[in-house]
Automatic annotation (TrEMBL):
<dbReference type="InterPro" id="IPR050164">
    <property type="entry name" value="Peptidase_C19"/>
</dbReference>
<dbReference type="InterPro" id="IPR028889">
    <property type="entry name" value="USP"/>
</dbReference>
<feature type="compositionally biased region" description="Low complexity">
    <location>
        <begin position="1156"/>
        <end position="1173"/>
    </location>
</feature>
<dbReference type="GO" id="GO:0031647">
    <property type="term" value="P:regulation of protein stability"/>
</dbReference>
<keyword id="KW-0833">Ubl conjugation pathway</keyword>
<dbReference type="InterPro" id="IPR038765">
    <property type="entry name" value="Papain-like_cys_pep_sf"/>
</dbReference>
<dbReference type="InterPro" id="IPR001394">
    <property type="entry name" value="Peptidase_C19_UCH"/>
</dbReference>
<dbReference type="Pfam" id="PF22486">
    <property type="entry name" value="MATH_2"/>
</dbReference>
<dbReference type="InterPro" id="IPR029346">
    <property type="entry name" value="USP_C"/>
</dbReference>
<dbReference type="GO" id="GO:0005634">
    <property type="term" value="C:nucleus"/>
</dbReference>
<dbReference type="Pfam" id="PF14533">
    <property type="entry name" value="USP7_C2"/>
</dbReference>
<feature type="domain" description="MATH">
    <location>
        <begin position="26"/>
        <end position="161"/>
    </location>
</feature>
<dbReference type="GO" id="GO:0004843">
    <property type="term" value="F:cysteine-type deubiquitinase activity"/>
</dbReference>
<dbReference type="InterPro" id="IPR024729">
    <property type="entry name" value="USP7_ICP0-binding_dom"/>
</dbReference>
<keyword id="KW-0378">Hydrolase</keyword>
<dbReference type="InterPro" id="IPR002083">
    <property type="entry name" value="MATH/TRAF_dom"/>
</dbReference>
<protein>
    <recommendedName>
        <fullName>ubiquitinyl hydrolase 1</fullName>
        <ecNumber>3.4.19.12</ecNumber>
    </recommendedName>
</protein>
Amino acid sequence: MTVSVDDTNAFAHKYLHNYGIPAEDLKKHSWKISRFDDTLTLSLFGVESDTFTAGGHEWNILCRPQNCVQEEKVNVSIYLNCKGPKQLAKNWHVCAQFIFAISNPNDGTCYLQHGGKARFSDSNQSWGFSNFAELDKLLGPDGSRVKPIIENHEAVVTAFVQVFKDETGFLWHDFVNYDSKKETGYVSLKNHGGAGYLNPLLQLLFSNTYLRKAVYQIPTEHDGPDSVALTLQRIFYELQTSDKAVGIAQLTKSLIAWKPLDVSQSQVVHEFMRMLQRELQSRTKNTSLDGFFRYLFVGKCKRYIKCINVDHESSQEENFSDVQLDIKDFQGRPFKTLQESLKAYVAPQKIDGDIKHYAGDDHGLQVANEGTVFIEFPPVLHLHLNRFEYNFQEDKQIKIDDGLEFPSKLDLAPYLDESADKTANWNYRLQGVLVHSGEAQEMKYFAFIQPHPQSKWYKFDDDRVIPVTAGEVLKSSTNVHMLVYIRESKEAAIRTTITQADTPTHLKSLLQQAQKLHEQKKKEDEERHLYLTTKIVTEETFRVFQGFDLALFDDKTMPPSDVPTFRVAKKQRFLDFKSTLARDLGYQPEQIRLRPLLVPVDRPRAAVPENVQTLTMEVIRDTAMASSTQDLKLYLEVLDPEHEAEAAESEERQVMIMVKYFNVSDQALSGIGHFWVKEGQRVADLVSLINARMKFPKGSRLKMYEERRPGRIVLMDPNTTFGEAQMLDGDIICFEIEFSDEELEKLGRQYAYLDPVSFYDFLANRVLVRFKPRHTNMAKMIEFDIPLSKTLTYSQMAHLVGKRLHRNPARLRFINSEQGDPHHVIRRQGTVADMIKSSDNDSINNTLFYELLDLPVDGIETERKVKITWTGAHNREDGTYSFLMPKTASMQDVIDKLMQLSTFITFSKNSTRKIKLFTFHDGQMEKQFSGEELLINVADLENLHATELQTMTTQYDPVAMLKMLHFVKKLSVDGTNYPTWLKTVESILGMATGKVNLLTSPDQTIGCAEDLIIKQAIAASVDDALVLTVVEAESGMEAFDKIQKRWNSRNKQVIIMKEILQTRFKICDTTADIGSHFQVIKNLAGRLFKSGFELTKESFIGLLFHLSLPRLDIPPFGNISRRIDARPGGAATISNDQLVQLAQTELQKFRKNRKTTSGTSNSNPTEPSSSTGKSINRGPQMSKPCHNCSH
């Protein structure tokens, strides 16, 4: 429909965009330009309209030519210019959208228009279009326009200006030079990669001042840098005091220990929050804060199953720290509001059909309703929206983009149980919103937070903190991931004011120290170009050095030498540095001489001449080191006055020789200083000088070796002169005492290296290896480092470690490491290089673990140690017996060996005198041996137990059973040890009753007395929080059924298995580690088995079949997990035939209901809208699959 420029409302309605922002004013200003074409072609600067007012600001229009030289045409440029508010103010701005129209002066329907929006300010007063239109096209008809716009050289330029109300002050801001702290009082957190949700979550926690105060009170004075609590305190304090964005790198590093939680997965936000709460709770046990975090975040709910036709209800109260709400219902229809999702959460689900609820022996299988209701909500409520689901066709997570409206105030009373106090104030106020933007794989998060009820809302992202409107917060419904509500009656306490006095003094001191070090390091980095590092080798450092040359500076296999090191200004005079150095080391400047260690040999060839010592340190370094990037390395020579006087008179050149002593007995080198020799002297002449300095007996015979280069240690001819040997200042000779053949043979039996050649070979191949005890409970075992040659054999290494530990090396066994943890036992072959994976000094793979065995390692190859605990006739431990058996022996041979010890073993009266051999671990019987098994194939020989093989008439001993139950690890509320607990209790019940698999065998007949024993055993072996559940059960088997159903949850197994299938190794991520990825899968599998899943062929097929069914959250298959979990015993009791039958029943029911619905419906359903807002044409019903069949 054609509108006229003259019709303000119609034109504005058609072309002005609705931004959802309150508008303050809308003005139209028309400006008629005579001789329009001439004005533009002749005027260089264009023309301006008269001034008009809109939104309290003054405006005008600027129209000017824009010449295009290459195309020889003139374009019309139009700009809207804001002159500022009528009452001029400093730093003013105004936000407006505008539409320009050039129209025919006689026909308002003939026009050309363009529009835009902008933030006008004193620095950006004009916005518009440099190429609004070509002048030639305005002079005649163009396209569908039959009239020219410029007619009789006239045209009308009209501006429609809509001024918006900028509620936050930052509408359409470019954020150049934006200061979050100055504008909002808050700062952002730096994004270090990984978990994108971590930063906004921390901001949400920080905004809870009640929580922040409590975190500050956690005792962390003695915590290390990896402490989560201390790091959280630091982050909170820096957010509170810093003017710039705060880093969280240390927290990210600390969270690595929280595997199997993958902090990079978007769907585990709620799990991260739970783990953080547990961490904080554990740190406040037995303190004044004990229970605080549970009070703040944990509420109570009741899960129930209530029969419809009989008076029977099973219920269990549970704690919850968050509520996970669905975006869609079971039919896949999206909820419109948060209240609808909450209502569906507490709505009961009917248990009917083939899968009914077992209501005990009195009522049998019954139709029932199951559901969850809330008893009490916590002061701070976290609502997580299940916005991600797995698409099996695309093999990836997809995000549900359906909107879910949420209120700023929420009344939670309608979702409480009847027993709750509904007269109390259950109104909650929205405090924070965690928003996920982008696709499921994109880790883009930010948070909306209202720190105080009367404050503005703010948007916290990785770049800045900006004010936003409440309307903008409530419009984020399609991306909201978590909502934080605060109970109004608790709000005053939770949003309390925090002061500097609430901050721990040790934290302030720690951060001040860290800031000081940071500033110091920053200053050093900024001034690095002004300084150079100078390292000094002295006679003292040379004396203790073990290696080639005079010191070790840059070696990956060993730590650098500990030599005096100085940070020296490059422009400092060398003479001044020498004076300062002499004073620091206790000399007079004239007593020392400094010799640069020249590259590439690091030998002190020549001293810095006296006539150049006024040069700068930089010049000396560049001259000596031949590189401006290297450190300056100097040898400090202490002058000998007697030698100096002699050298001044001597005409023959003298050479300074550095000398080392190889001590066979110590297996070590030691520098003994330097000697001055004449070029014409023989090498043998040095012997007497060395003997005198070392105080060896006169006439001691020495062997001399020249240290030429690594791998080139040469025995010297004593008759050769130093000149003939071409020795220079700083060259090195290593000597040893000369031994006879008999002495060498004797030494060879004690020491690995008998001469400098072999010892230098060791030094060339050495690597620093750290040895750790494999088990932390190994008494008097220590952790230590030994430099080893990579060519050492297993036996040689064991000898050195045994000597260090004062233990028999034959009984030491070694284990290599994987990521710093024990990995595989090392076989007695190969070299050290084969045992470690890196030769770098700082590699964690240079760690070997050791353990001390009771027999030699080589003996393990033919024999195995067997350790058996005899429990006796009354299930009491009467003794432990250890003996060696050939690996080829059978377990019956082991029993026979034990029978030979019958003088220590007593049997009951009328006993069969037969022995039952089994493994017993963590209080549970794991495996009973038939006797045919070979010893070599039995993995666990440390936990063998033996007892008298009892007949079925064995009498029940309640005292013995309760004693054994006393040592059982009690089943806790979280159920992580459920499989272990079940095996243990079943094993003990088997000993007490003589019946195997009393709890889990479907064919087992249980009498009243045995049922009482079951109830007694379960009550004694569960946590206090579960005792009431057992006591209230009508029978022992009913008590077990309640316990078993709690953890044998098919719903939990399906969720974990989905997560396993969804976890993919990120091959494009260069930082991704395949070992860490394996650990994630391993931990997820561990969680699967802890959920009650036992891996058998049938159970595995059943679970995979279940996962293959589409859309497990909606009909027809949405109720399968619920019905399985509702069975007596839960998922542990359903066979695959029953599973298939259950799926078939649900499918038939669904098809029947669907057929009935489609046959009786006469209404015209509302067509859904696509994401673009356009109606979708469904087409024939059979041409498209239903939503239930899509993955």
